[in-house]
Amino acid sequence: MRYYLAFDDTDNLGAPYGTGKVARWFESRLPEGCRLWAVVRQQLLVHDDVPYTSHNSGACLVVEAENERCRKQLLETAVEHLREHSLEGSDPGLCLAAENDLGMPLLTAFGQRCTNSLVHQDEAYAAAKDAGVHLSAHGGTGDGVIGALASVGLTAWGWAGRFIEMGGLRSLPDNLTVAALRKHGLRVTSIDRDAPNPGPEDMVRTNGWCRPRLIGGQPVLLVQKETDAAWRALGGKRAKGHMS
Question: Residues 36, 165: contact at Cβ < 8 Å?
Answer without folding.
Answer: yes
